[in-house]
């Protein structure tokens, strides 16, 4: 079976006054049906832009400058806006980061849900309303009839994110792109939403791209991880393998900076330095200036090379299995 | 909602009262109408008689008391010049001004919002830049000069439209209106455009700025991610959000258009209230000035009240907080 989504050498550039910022620079990955991919990286690593690029929602001055996004056999970049619109919300849905901002404040929930149903399916208003109601029940919202008649400001953040997820589920999409959907929520709500989404995706066989900066969140959820840095994927592979044996020094740094019980009382490890500006990237390996293992070889940019079963890493000096942190 | 309305009406009444005091005192100080009204050759005794007849010999507070007492009974005084009730004279002229202001408002909203939204959606396009450039002209050129240019081009050079006056009127809902006959309409077009240009420019800029802001919001991106047509995203998701500030401005501006169409009415000899006010100020016809200003205050206060009610209809967040309050 061919992959549901195949992103090949995606390039999304922002043409600003100060130069071209290559927010996404040659990202490739693929996703099977029902699979969950965690796209991990710091702010500015290009993970959100990757998500928006797949849906063709990159705002000017940014645009997709190259590459292919093959969804179920069709190239979305070549297909253009018309093809994109028939897929958006229908076969590929998106959940945004800040639930406070994603629902239109002046429209009732039923309006916002019914329009989504009717954008793709020519059904009556009452049929659309019934589907909206079911979707709300599905995401665990009680008294859905009353909720449908409410406005977004009458909901809490967690509830709004549930509504957004319900909207994403309306057409039983093949793929949901979730852009840090739990970042703005309380930890307890976060856990609820996480398990809810996991359950719903498993039930309906929906594939999921979960974009996050939080390795702890995604490690319990995703089948595969792709770690991004400065617009590139620097490590990819099965979640368990990466968490147990990160190859790239950056991935290792991310994992080490997650607080753990057994190191209670010790200082947290941190990655020194900051994400470089996309307008002024270092030559060679983009992580080299912050990397404890960098040497002269790192002046040349490493390629993404196989590193173990189903794994890839972009590094001249990858860590071996079970290697201690230096 | 009802509690809120009662409170708002109460506030409005206070504003009207305060205005009454200010207007009355202000008019008292702008000059003695008797100097203008009586024959220059009149004797001292005749002048004294006139002063007494008009009640101008009494102290200010007494005059004000009489004015308020009469005003409460619907009598805003009798014109010194015409010898008729001031309110009646103004109400005669009101339909002409109302018609002009409403047509101008319709023009400025009907053209201003679409142009502003268009310019906001494509801020860097040639059309967008042209619209913005035009709007700068629209509100930086003086109103009277725009009016004179309109007359020069369309009435004098091209001869398409009449230069002034109101033309043929017909009765509509008990008022004399121009827009139902071709002759009346041809008289109405130029002054309405003149009055509308400034407001239109204002609405264009407001609509553009708000459109740009709303378009950057996540909910617009989310609406697109839901697969909605661009048409629906703009006409429902964007437009409904930009209407909140636009309605405020429309409300404020309608009031000022009715009240201060003076320049346009003067340039186009449009027989409305504004022209009456100018004439009355020249003649120091105090009751007409006072009655005009009081009526203006009432209109503006009423429109503001209406705007607040419309607000709650388009912004659910306001509706809710009011119910609580």
TrEMBL record, chain A:
Residues 307-326 are annotated as: Disordered. Its main location: membrane. Pfam families: ABC_tran, oligo_HPY. GO terms for biological process: peptide transport; transmembrane transport. One of its GO terms (molecular function) is ATP binding. Keywords: ATP-binding, Cell membrane, Membrane, Nucleotide-binding, Transport. This is ABC transporter ATP-binding protein.
UniProtKB/TrEMBL annotation, chain B:
The keyword Transmembrane applies. InterPro entries: BPD_transp_1_N (IPR045621), MetI-like (IPR000515), MetI-like_sf (IPR035906). It is a multi-pass membrane protein. CDD domains: TM_PBP2 (cd06261). The keyword Endoplasmic reticulum does not apply. It is found in: Cell membrane. Its main location: membrane. Keywords: Cell membrane, Membrane, Transmembrane, Transmembrane helix, Transport. GO terms for cellular component: plasma membrane. Residues 94-307 form the ABC transmembrane type-1 domain. GO terms for biological process: transmembrane transport. The chain crosses the membrane at residues 12-31, 100-121, 142-161, 173-198, 242-269, 289-314. Belongs to the binding-protein-dependent transport system permease family. PANTHER family: ABC TRANSPORTER PERMEASE PROTEIN, DIPEPTIDE TRANSPORT SYSTEM PERMEASE PROTEIN DPPB-RELATED. This is ABC transporter permease. The lineage of its organism: Bacteria, Pseudomonadati, Pseudomonadota, Alphaproteobacteria, Rhodobacterales.
């Amino acid at each position: 079976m061919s992959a549901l989504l195949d992103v090949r050498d995606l390039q999304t550039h922002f043409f600003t006054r100060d130069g071209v910022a290559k927010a996404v620079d040659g990202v490739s990955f693929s996703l099977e049906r029902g699979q969950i991919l965690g796209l991990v990286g710091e702010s500015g690593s290009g993970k959100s832009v990757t998500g928006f690029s797949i849906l063709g929602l990159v705002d000017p001055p940014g645009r997709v400058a190259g590459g292919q996004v093959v969804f179920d056999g069709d190239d979305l970049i070549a297909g253009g806006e018309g093809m994109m619109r028939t897929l958006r919300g229908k076969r590929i849905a998106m959940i945004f980061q800040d639930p406070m901002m994603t629902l239109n404040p002046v429209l009732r929930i039923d309006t916002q849900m019914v329009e989504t149903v009717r954008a793709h399916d020519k059904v009556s208003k009452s049929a659309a309303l019934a589907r909206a109601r079911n979707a709300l029940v599905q995401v665990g919202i009680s008294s859905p009839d009353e909720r449908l008649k409410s406005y977004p400001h009458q909901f809490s953040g967690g509830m709004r994110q549930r509504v957004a997820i319900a909207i994403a589920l309306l057409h039983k999409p093949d793929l949901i792109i979730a852009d840090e959907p739990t970042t703005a929520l309380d930890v307890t709500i976060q856990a609820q939403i996480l398990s809810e989404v996991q359950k719903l995706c498993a039930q309906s066989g929906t594939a999921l791209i979960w974009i996050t900066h939080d390795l702890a969140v995604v490690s319990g959820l995703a089948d595969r991880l792709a770690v991004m840095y400065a617009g590139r994927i620097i490590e990819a592979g099965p979640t368990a393998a990466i968490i147990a044996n990160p190859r790239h020094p950056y991935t290792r740094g991310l994992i080490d900076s997650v607080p753990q019980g057994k190191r209670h009382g010790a200082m947290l490890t941190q990655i020194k330095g900051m994400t470089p500006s996309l307008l002024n990237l270092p030559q060679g390996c983009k992580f080299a200036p912050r990397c404890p293992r960098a040497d002269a070889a790192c002046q040349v940019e490493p390629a993404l090379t196989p590193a173990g079963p189903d794994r890839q890493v972009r590094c001249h000096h990858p860590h071996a299995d079970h290697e201690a942190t230096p | 909602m009802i509690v809120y309305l009662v409170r708002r009406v109460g506030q409005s009444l206070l504003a009207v009262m305060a205005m009454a005091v200010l207007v009355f005192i202000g008019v008292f100080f702008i000059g003695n109408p008797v100097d203008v009204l009586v024959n220059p050759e009149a004797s001292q005794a005749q002048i004294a008689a006139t002063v007494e007849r008009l009640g101008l010999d009494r102290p200010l507070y007494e005059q004000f008391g009489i004015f308020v007492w009469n005003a409460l009974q619907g009598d805003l005084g009798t014109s010194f010049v015409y010898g008729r009730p001031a309110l009646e004279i103004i109400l005669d002229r009101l339909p002409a001004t109302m018609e002009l202001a409403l047509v101008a408002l319709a023009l400025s909203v009907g053209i201003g919002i679409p142009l502003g939204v268009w310019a906001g959606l494509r801020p860097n396009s040639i059309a967008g830049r042209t619209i913005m450039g035009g709007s700068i002209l629209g509100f930086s050129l003086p109103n009277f000069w725009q009016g004179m240019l309109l007359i020069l081009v369309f009435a004098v050079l091209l001869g398409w439209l009449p230069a002034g006056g109101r033309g043929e009127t017909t009765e509509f809902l008990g008022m004399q209106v121009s827009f139902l006959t071709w002759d009346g309409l041809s008289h109405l077009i130029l002054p309405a455009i003149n009055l509308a240009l400034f407001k239109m420019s204002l609405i264009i800029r407001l609509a553009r700025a708000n459109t740009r802001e709303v378009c950057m919001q996540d909910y617009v991106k989310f609406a697109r991610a839901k697969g909605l047509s661009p048409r629906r995203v703009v006409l429902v998701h964007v437009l409904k959000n930009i209407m909140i500030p636009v309605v405020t401005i429309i409300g404020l501006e309608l009031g000022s258009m009715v009240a201060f169409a003076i320049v346009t009415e003067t340039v186009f000899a449009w027989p409305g209230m504004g022209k009456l006010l100018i004439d009355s100020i020249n003649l120091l016809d105090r009751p007409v000035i006072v009655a005009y200003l009081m009526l203006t205050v009432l209109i503006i206060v009423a429109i503001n009240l209406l705007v607040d009610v419309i607000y709650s209809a388009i912004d659910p967040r306001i509706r809710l907080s009011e119910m609580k309050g």
